[in-house]
């Protein structure tokens, strides 16, 4: 019998793309393009007697892990889904992230905005959000922090519910330009 990982990479990828997307949060086509970008990275060249698991499996493990929350995101939970050891999940996460963060990948696929685009975004932030945020250069939205208890802030508990009815905080990270590594 196939592990869920094997099923996703064989059957779902070819015949049930909606299930593939549900599991890995990416289409089979995008998965293949992403795999092409990292497959030749030196981090996947094994220097030990133990061969690495195939790169497509390592990428799938990372995508599954990053597309989950709660118990499913733990190394143990992902290992159970993938049919591999906890150590394989740790190594796959490290290797794939290292390959994705190499300088050529982000520059090619995640280009920074031009100065004009930055100025346009700053003007919008100043006018529509918070003046103090104007000189920022990037925002990371949708960082979900689950709350252990129901918040009691002037009776506005509904504001803290997510789409699943759980109480959470939605954090927005603001990065100042001085923190940016200039290329």
Cα end-to-end separation:
49 Å
Structural class: mainly alpha
How many distinct helices? 8
Subunit organisation of the chains: single chain
- Shape by Cα distribution: globular
Mean pLDDT: 81
Portion in helices: 40-55%
Task: Outline the biggest β-sheet.
Answer: 2 strands, antiparallel
Provide the β-strand percentage band. Answer: 5-15%
Total beta strands:
2
Unreliable stretches covering 5 or more consecutive residues: 174-183
Radius of gyration (Å): 20 Å
Side by side, the strands of the main sheet go 1-2
Order of helices and strands: HHHHHHHHEE
What attributes does this structure have?
2 strands; single chain; 183 residues; globular; mainly alpha; disordered C terminus; two-stranded antiparallel sheet; 8 helices
Would you write up a description of this structure?
- The structure is a single chain.
- By secondary structure, this protein is mainly α.
- It has helices at about 5-15, 15-25, 30-40, 55-65, 75-80, 85-100, 105-110, 115-130, and strands at about 135-145, 170-175.
- The protein has a two-stranded antiparallel ribbon.
């Amino acid at each position: 019998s196939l592990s869920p990982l094997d099923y996703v990479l064989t059957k779902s990828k070819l015949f049930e793309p909606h299930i593939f997307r549900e599991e890995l949060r990416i289409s089979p086509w995008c998965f293949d393009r992403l795999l092409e970008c990292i497959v030749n990275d030196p981090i996947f060249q094994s220097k030990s007697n133990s061969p690495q698991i195939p790169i497509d499996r390592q990428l799938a493990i990372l995508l599954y892990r990053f597309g989950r929350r709660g118990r499913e995101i733990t190394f143990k939970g992902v290992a159970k889904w993938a049919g591999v050891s906890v150590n394989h999940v740790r190594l796959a996460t490290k290797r794939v992230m290292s390959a994705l963060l190499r300088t050529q990948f982000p520059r090619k696929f995640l280009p920074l905005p031009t100065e004009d685009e930055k100025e346009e975004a700053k003007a919008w932030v100043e006018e529509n959000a918070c003046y103090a945020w104007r000189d920022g250069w990037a925002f990371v939205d949708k960082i979900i922090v689950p709350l252990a208890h129901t918040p009691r802030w002037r009776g506005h508990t509904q504001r803290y519910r997510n789409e699943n009815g759980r109480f959470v905080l939605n954090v927005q990270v603001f990065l100042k330009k001085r923190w940016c590594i200039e290329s």
